[in-house]
Amino acid sequence: xxxxxxxxxxxxxxxxxxxxxxxxxxxxxxxxxxxxxxxxxxxxxxxxxxxxxxxxxxxxxxxxxxxxxxxxxxxxxxxxxxxxxxxxxxxxxxxxxxxxxxxxxxxxxxxxxxxxxxxxxxxxxxxxxxxxxxxxxxxxxxxxxxxxxxxxxxxxxxxxxxxxxxxxx
Length: 169
Known about the structure:
Elements: E1 2-4, E2 8-9, E3 12-13, E4 15-18, E5 32-33, E6 36-43, E7 47-106, E8 109-116, E9 119-120, H1 123-131, H2 139-150, H3 152-156
Parallel strand pairs: 4-6, 5-6, 6-7, 7-8, 8-9
Antiparallel strand pairs: 1-4, 2-3
């Protein structure tokens, strides 16, 4: 199923939804490419939501972007099970500037069950995270805010009563 907005900006559609159909031979999945891209694979300069998401704001199983939230997240600010970035928070957090999580490693500040770095589980690290407003939000609240966004592809793929697809002509 593919739904694309009629409007565009700088040559890209404003919105695109691209989901593969289930069946005995699923078709090849082409990515959703738009300012707001939602799909199995979502790529765009704005918001991307999908199994694999690449964008400024990326939410998905594997998320790559400026702000990345996902099972595996790679970004300037990354939040996820395994997160790598400038500032990282998650089960395994690897950050250039700062990392916070179960296992946190950073060249700067690290807080966690196991923390590695020059300022690992020190007073300096605690003070650093206390001053950074984003780090005051516990991870469970991040997931509560962004989990509904990651469920959009699932909700959009539901068929209407009668079993007909809502694919536009």
